[in-house]
Amino acid sequence: MMESKTGLIHISDFSRQAFFCFLEHMYLDSPGDGWDWNVDARELWSLADKYDVPSVKEFLLNTLDEFNTPAAAAYALAHWDAAGNPLAEACRTASVKHLRRMTAFEGIPANVVKLLLSSDVGGRRAQVDRFQLIMRWCEANQVDATSSEAQELVGEIRFASMRWEDIESIVRPSGLLSEQQISAY
């Protein structure tokens, strides 16, 4: 092999930036001075997967927030089944904490939003937040309120938990439910 003669290994399937951050984390067990917070976490996850370095995955799971959870969930579902997928599960858990502030939905498929809504959270405020997340997703992706995707997501909401004031001030003006659907609640 060429590597044994030259002492060089050519890695072409990841960016130099991602590989540097990966190595730094692998050897220091945390981000070091050269860490670039703009590195694509999907590349880091793939590197950790390829070279079996769970500490990098654990670090990435702990950095999920309102900005990167939708993209991380999309990546998880595009590459693996949701069942038994630690990244998908971490995204579902993070979504409960960050539901109200998540806004990065442009280009995110409906199945990802469904994953983010799949945590069993109760209470009026949680249902309002979940509904508003669907509204933000529809707006970001220019999805018609009457589309099957939007209606399937709306089916994840427990409207009976909401106050009538919430229905009147948030749900009705959104156009995501027809008058007939609203009167059923």
Characterize the structure shown.
By secondary structure, the chain is mostly helical. It is 59% helix and 0% strand. It has eleven helices and no strands. It has helices spanning 2-6, 16-28, 41-50, 54-62, 69-79, 86-98, 110-116, 124-141, 148-154, 164-174, 179-183. Helix 5 runs antiparallel to helix 6 (86-98). It is elongated, with a radius of gyration of 20 Å.
Number of strands: 0
Note the overall shape.
Answer: elongated
> Major β-sheet, in short?
none
Q: Which H/E pattern describes the elements? A: HHHHHHHHHHH
Gyration radius, in Å: 20 Å
Q: Which structural class should the secondary elements be placed in? A: mainly alpha
Query: N-to-C terminal Cα separation, in Å?
Result: 69 Å
Percent of residues in beta strands: under 5%
Task: Report the uncertain regions.
Answer: none
What would the average pLDDT be, to the nearest integer?
Answer: 87
Number of helices: 11
**Helical coverage, percent range:** 55-70%
Please tag this protein with its features.
185 residues; mainly alpha; 11 helices
Helix-strand blueprint:
Layout: H1 2-6, H2 16-28, H3 41-50, H4 54-62, H5 69-79, H6 86-98, H7 110-116, H8 124-141, H9 148-154, H10 164-174, H11 179-183
Helix pairs in contact: 2-3, 3-4, 5-6, 5-7, 8-10
In short:
With 185 residues, this protein is mainly α. The protein has helices spanning 2-6, 16-28, 41-50, 54-62, 69-79, 86-98, 110-116, 124-141, 148-154, 164-174, 179-183. The model has no long low-confidence stretch (mean pLDDT 87).
